[in-house]
UniProtKB/TrEMBL annotation:
SUPFAM superfamilies assigned to the protein according to its UniProt record, in alphabetical order: Nucleic acid-binding proteins
Stored Gene3D superfamilies: 6.10.30.10
Domain ChsH2 rubredoxin-like zinc ribbon per the UniProt entry, residue ranges: 7-30
Organism whose genome encodes this protein: Pandoraea thiooxydans
Pfam family membership, one: zf-ChsH2
Source superkingdom: Bacteria
Protein name: ChsH2 rubredoxin-like zinc ribbon domain-containing protein
Length: 103
């Protein structure tokens, strides 16, 4: 499922996740917008996860979406800052980042 971000219909502020009210203008109307591809800004590796012993490392990244907001996403492989990724949601509604096919 494609990742969606939310644009305030009054002032144009784009956020993720959705909010009840826009923090910039106070409006409560949002338009869902595709996040588009993103650029990896920072990465980290979680090596020890409580309740997930033996599950391997979890690679995470802060990704700036083409629409503007930064999201934290799980990676299927180690990536570097500056890499272009495609963002999606899995069945558990976790944000996933995959290397962009055109990169």
């Amino acid at each position: 499922m494609e990742l969606t971000v939310f644009r305030c219909t009054q002032c144009g502020t784009t956020l993720f996740p959705a909010r009840y009210l826009c923090p910039h203008c106070g409006a409560d109307q949002w338009a869902a917008t595709p996040a588009g591809p993103g650029t990896v800004e920072e990465t980290t590796v979680v090596r020890h996860r409580v309740g997930a012993q033996g599950a391997g490392d979890a690679h995470l990244a802060s990704v700036r979406t083409a629409a503007g907001p930064v999201v934290v996403a799980r990676l299927d492989q180690a990536l570097q800052p500056g890499d272009i990724v495609t963002l999606a949601l899995d069945d558990a509604m976790r944000v996933l980042a995959h290397p962009h096919a055109g990169a």
